[in-house]
Amino acid sequence: MRKISKVESVIPKIKTKKRVAAYARVSKDTEVLMNSLSAQISYYSTLIQKNPEWTYVGVYADEGITGTSTKKRDDFKRLIADCDTGKIDIVLTKSISRFARNTVDLLESVRHLKDIGVEVRFERENISTMSGEGELMLTILASFAQEESRSLSENIKWAIKKGFEKGEPHSPPRVLGYEWDGEKYKIVLDEAETVRFIFDKYLEGVSTLQLPKLLSKKGVVGVNGNPLTRPSIKEVLSNEIYTGNLMLQKYFSSGIRKKTRNYGERPKYLVEGSHDPIISKDLFEAVQKARKERGKNAPKKEFTCFSSKIKCGKCGYKCSRRNIVHSKKTKRNYYKRWLCNTRETKGMGFCDLKPIDEDSLRAASAFILGEKKLDEDRFKKEIDIVVVFDDRLEFNFKDGRRLEWQRE
């Protein structure tokens, strides 16, 4: 009798390809390092696409960003987000120091990726986070990388200090009126005229609040192409560089790559006659004396329940309180107004929000809170921001409510 055997069909298993991405980073935005970053991107793109067992996801790259923290590394954060959504199985990177130089950030990142099944491979150290000894080696090597970064930072600080002692500036910044030619500051003629205008007008009695408007009308802009603001004008008026002298170490690093203004915590170095002056020393000293005198006579800041809570509905900037006196001789018709800072410093061409009298603001606030007279303590506790428009006020409460009041 014939025997019939049943043959089961076998479906061949197709090996799933691993989805692979790479991460590259350079810490300074220079031409040489940008070429290095391009080389890293090209290398990883080719490496991943040549492997038949891998599917190319992409190369994530941060340009000119420090590795001591992940906060400002946009592509690194995008890489982690794509890993979280299941788009990546393996991440390749050149070394631990490229991935992170902060031990805590490194371990938090790789542990998180390991928990969601994503492997990180460090080429230089030949470490995989999925191997048994991977985390131990990472902890040790990352500590070395962090200490290397700190040591490098200290060496750079020492070299910069020695340069200061010799009168050599470090990374001289571009300032209004001057540009660095590689050896010293060189005068930019049209900008130098602006600097002289600022000093002369201030000595004539024009305030730092009025100067931005005057410069805006003249079409003057700063070295970044933006209109000059009140803080930038104050910086010009206090900068001894315009007398031909150079003050070194105005700022110092208070931590790894963190700049702080030097108020005497570090020595400063004055290099006299380092470049051609734009103004005379007498004019500079006269302006410094005028600034001190105006500072003494300036009215003390008065803080109210509205301080830091009034916002312009047109440009989004804050509004500040101004004391208005119609007659300087008799000091009559004295009242207070809240005006948009953009309008005050740059002019109506940038923002034309109508000012609001403080009495009207108080009346509106009391009405919104259901009171006859404004309770300032309650206002501070309940109101977050008051947005001012030409036709209305918008009261934003801390509990999420939003009420409007029509302006007269």
Task: List the keywords.
Rossmann fold; 37% helix; five-stranded mixed sheet; 408 residues; alpha/beta; four-stranded mixed sheet; Hect, E3 ligase catalytic domain fold; 21% strand; 3 domains
Q: Can you tell me the CATH architecture of the largest domain?
A: 3-Layer(aba) Sandwich
SS field, number of helical segments: 12
Radius of gyration: 31 Å
State the order of secondary-structure elements, H for helix, E for strand.
EHEHEHHEEHEEHHHEEEEHEEEHEHHEEE
Largest sheet: 5 strands, mixed
Largest sheet, order of strands side by side? 2-1-3-4-5
How far is it from the N-terminal to the C-terminal residue, by CA?
Answer: 109 Å
Instruction: Quote the CATH topology of the largest domain.
Output: Rossmann fold
Uncertain runs with pLDDT below 50, 5 residues or more?
Answer: none
Overall shape: extended
Strand content: 15-25%
CATH H-level superfamily title of the largest domain: Resolvase, N-terminal catalytic domain
CATH class bucket of the largest domain: Alpha Beta
- Taken together, the total number of domains comes to 3
Structural class: alpha/beta
Helix content: 25-40%
Beta strands, count? 18
Averaging pLDDT over every residue, what do you get?
80
General description of the model:
This protein is of the alpha/beta class. It has 3 domains: 18-149, Rossmann fold (3-Layer(aba) Sandwich), CATH 3.40.50; 178-297, Alpha-Beta Complex (Hect, E3 ligase catalytic domain fold); 310-406, no CATH class. The chain is 37% helix and 21% strand. It contains 12 helices and 18 strands. It has helices spanning 31-50, 74-84, 96-99, 103-115, 134-165, 189-204, 211-217, 230-237, 281-297, 341-346, 358-368, 376-382, and strands spanning 18-25, 54-62, 90-93, 119-122, 127-128, 178-180, 185-187, 246-248, 251-255, 258-261, 269-271, 310-312, 319-325, 334-340, 356-357, 383-388, 392-397, 402-406. A 5-stranded mixed β-sheet has the order 2-1-3-4-5, with helices on both faces. Strands 12-16-17-18 form a 4-stranded mixed β-sheet. The longest helix has 32 residues, at 134-165. The protein is extended, with a radius of gyration of 31 Å. The model has no long low-confidence stretch (mean pLDDT 80).
